From TrEMBL:
Pfam families: GMC_oxred_C, GMC_oxred_N. PANTHER family: GLUCOSE DEHYDROGENASE [FAD, QUINONE]-LIKE PROTEIN (PTHR11552:SF227), GLUCOSE-METHANOL-CHOLINE GMC OXIDOREDUCTASE (PTHR11552). GO terms for molecular function: flavin adenine dinucleotide binding; oxidoreductase activity, acting on CH-OH group of donors. Gene3D superfamilies: FAD/NAD(P)-binding domain (3.50.50.60), Glucose Oxidase, domain 3 (3.30.560.10). Residues 115-342 form the Glucose-methanol-choline oxidoreductase N-terminal domain. The active site is at 541 (proton donor), 585 (proton acceptor). Belongs to the GMC oxidoreductase family. Residues 453-594 form the Glucose-methanol-choline oxidoreductase C-terminal domain. Residues 1-20 form the signal peptide. This is Glucose dehydrogenase [FAD, quinone]-like. It comes from the Eukaryota. Its cofactor is FAD. FAD binds at residue 266.
Length: 609
């Protein structure tokens, strides 16, 4: 109890200090508090702009930045959340952000088949509500996906999205700061998003790589370069140990033609009788406003909220709009094609050396001074993830990996169930059975993550009230192959922990049985399937609900230039346009979409002028 009270006190202290003017001044001096350099407006300064961008995440922030490079264009960026704070910038405290109002707090609907060990049988689906969007609360992992992912997009009829054509946008977005990797063909050192190795990691990260090598896997120094397949240290979107969010990367600009308005919730897109988008309706401080766009409205509110806004604006499935009583503007498959990288929470290993992240070890003022003044030490770690592996199971259908193994030098027990359990929605029953008995012990977790799901979810609205949460149907394991692939990933991981590299830490699998799965033999395929259905892990990589595709694709919502079919002067630039989910962690790919989208918008209007 004393340790828990000390942990609570430390977190409260950090939050309270983050509101202290003296403390903020001190942090500015040492370069940590850079988000406060973003110039924001209380309200728009004009009634009409050339462009209105809705959402400031990895899609919208690049668009607002690049469009405002044209001095003659007036750009308005509207964000439903508030500016990020110091709390968001400390990597070790990443998971705690899910318990704050920086998270929309979405949860998947119960389907009675999955998320069976979660509170109310519903998995959480955290989404960022802040300047910077989900890049202010995610685990900072920077992966681009596989080259073949984007070639597949192009093969579906999306011209210009081949890997060789979009590589320049990956490069344009990044400021690469890993001196061990010098490869100008794949990387750029002068972009916006800082990318580096973690400033601190446990010895288990190296042991994980050594275990991979022992099992015959390739060790890749740069999974974002020539070869993705294999084991490597994770690359992070951090700036010398502090979070580098989309807002910090793209919105620290002071331009008279760019207005950034936080805490402004867009309710719908305004569309005239000619089916042209001419502005948006939004709410701020309890009042509703309209603001107009003479050229385009760009939706970058994310996979969930972009779909919601389109449907609220009359762009969506005809039958669903009729049910809601929303006048039809365009019958379109908005909300369909929802995809996610699903992993598994229940694969953890006990080690007999004090080498993992336990928050009780970090309640030490010296560690905070080490971090705040030098950005070093464990607070620079993204709450446990340290190494990553892209591998193939027997179900792989092409040259791409079908499973990602994410090594995490922490577990649900790291904070004694105070934040992690609640943030991920794991039920008290599950925690008490398989984690609580191990509190105080050192555990390492591995998430085997499905890379190419066959199952598809859907987003619907509960009503035409824009303040009602949408209905999120994950349908995660509608295709049984998805469950089979994750089970194979679990078996690959178990082999890794039987290697000499990890046995020297006394690695032993946590064999406490998951409630509801007691009837199965521990370690059998049936047991693991039961476990995955009980406590799946959301990677929070939702995408696909405003699918990009050619005109003859009946499921496409936007064309290959991200223009909404059937409505002029309206585009979508975020993860919702992805026809298929790419490998790895998708934030880097969303930055790419943002950069490419901005170029396409520029080309349209510079040609017209």
């Amino acid at each position: 109890m004393r340790e828990i009270l000390r942990l609570i006190f430390s977190v409260i202290l950090i939050i309270n200090l983050s509101e202290s003017a003296t403390f903020l001044d001190l942090l500015r001096q040492y370069g940590l508090d850079q988000s406060y350099q973003i110039a924001t407006r209380t309200l728009p300064t004009k009634s009409e702009y050339d462009f209105i961008v809705v959402g400031s995440g990895p899609g919208g922030a690049p668009v607002a930045n690049r469009l405002s490079e044209i001095g003659a264009w007036k750009v308005l960026l509207l964000e439903a959340g508030k500016p990020e704070g110091i709390f968001n910038q400390i990597p070790l405290l990443t998971e705690n952000a899910q318990m704050t109002n920086y998270n929309w707090g979405y949860r998947v609907e119960s389907d009675g088949k999955s998320c069976l060990g979660m509170k109310d049988l519903r998995c959480t689906w955290p989404r960022g509500k802040s300047l910077g969007g989900s890049s202010t609360i995610n685990n900072l992992i920077h992966t681009r996906g596989n080259k073949l992912d984007f070639d597949e997009w192009a093969n579906l009829g999306n011209y210009g999205w081949e890997y060789e054509k979009i590589l320049k946008y990956f490069k344009k977005s990044e400021r690469f700061r890993i001196p061990e990797i010098r490869d100008s063909f794949y990387h750029n050192t002068e972009g916006n998003v800082d990318v580096e190795y973690s400033q601190w990691r446990t010895p288990l990260a190296t042991a994980f790589l050594d275990a991979g090598k022992e099992c015959g896997y390739n060790i890749t120094q740069d999974y974002n370069g020539a070869e993705q397949m294999g084991f490597g240290y994770i690359q992070l979107a951090t700036d010398k140990g502090a979070r580098c969010s989309a807002s910090k990367a793209y919105l620290r600009v002071k331009r008279p033609n760019l207005d950034i308005v936080p805490s402004a919730r867009v309710l719908r897109v305004l569309i005239n009788s000619r089916k042209e988008a001419y502005g948006v309706e939004y709410e701020k401080n309890g009042k509703k406003y309209e603001v107009h766009a003479s050229k385009e409205v760009i939706l970058s509110a994310g996979t969930i909220d972009t779909a919601k806004l389109l449907i609220l604006s009359g762009i969506g499935p005809k039958d669903h709009l009729n049910e809601l009583g929303i006048p039809l503007v365009k019958d379109a498959k908005v909300g369909y094609n929802l995809q996610e990288h699903i992993a598994f929470w229940g694969l953890s290993f006990i080690v007999d050396l004090p080498v993992t992240i336990q928050f009780k070890r970090f309640i030490n003022p010296k560690l905070y001074s080490e971090y705040f003044f030098r950005r070093e030490g464990p607070l620079a770690s993204p709450a446990g993830p340290e190494a990553i592996a892209f591998v193939q199971t027997k179900y792989a259908q092409d040259a791409r990996p079908d499973i990602e193994l994410l090594q995490i030098s922490a577990a649900m027990t790291s904070d004694k169930g105070l934040f992690l359990r609640k943030g991920y929605g794991v039920s008290e029953r599950i925690y008490n059975a398989i984690y609580k008995p191990l509190e105080g012990k050192d555990l390492v977790t591995v998430w085997p993550s499905l890379q190419h799901p066959k199952s598809r979810g859907r987003i619907l609205l509960r009503s035409k009230n824009p303040y009602d949460e949408p209905i999120l149907k994950g349908n995660f394991f509608d295709d049984p192959l998805d469950l089979d692939v994750i089970v194979e990933g679990i078996k690959h991981t178990v082999k890794l922990f039987n290697t000499k590299a990890l046995k020297k830490y006394g690695a032993k699998i946590n064999s406490l049985k998951i409630p509801g799965c007691e009837q199965y033999e521990f370690g059998s395929d049936d047991y693991w399937k039961c476990g995955v259905l009980s406590i799946p892990a959301m990677e929070n990589h939702e995408c696909g609900t405003a699918k990009m595709g050619p005109k003859d694709d009946p499921d496409a919502v936007v064309d290959p230039e991200l223009r909404v079919y059937g409505v002029n002067r309206l585009r979508v630039v975020d993860a919702s346009v992805m026809p298929l989910i790419p490998d790895g962690h998708i934030t880097a790919s969303v930055y790419m979409v943002g950069e490419k989208g901005a170029d396409m918008i520029k080309n349209t209007w510079q040609t017209k002028s």
